[in-house]
Fold:
Amino acid sequence: MENSVRLRGVEPADLEVFLAYEHDPEAVRRSRFPPREREVFMAHWTTRVLGDPANLVRTVVVDDGTTESVAGNIVAWWEGERRYLGYWLGRAYWGRGIGTLALAAFLEVETVRPLYADPAAGNTGSVRLLEKCGFVATGTVRHGEDEHVVLVLGGSS
Structure:
């Protein structure tokens, strides 16, 4: 049976799932993003992510016909004059087209362009996902010791 993917607002219980996904060792290795302790994670999500009305935040839900599962999240936020996009999917949902469907649906709601993303250069799955959804690589940037690919949708600045 094919999975259906939909986006919805974030519910409090979703944060526990997001925290678990952030602590997956393979996700940490690929994203080059260090996992946060529970209290720090929850404070960040409640104040900076969900608490900022300028952010667009959605939970990715997968329905396999029998059960619904929280697959991850997608967020858009302002960083200076640039609007950025980020997402995190649980490992069980990688490589199944779920990210592509979720990001395509999110981009129908998030209409700011240009829209930027900067996944770790070694996170080829994430780079490919963004390119499938129309993002174009425009260069690289360093975050600490890690190189990240800058991708842009709808502009090159």
Q: What stands out?
A: The first helix runs from residue 14 to 22. The chain has a mean pLDDT of 93.
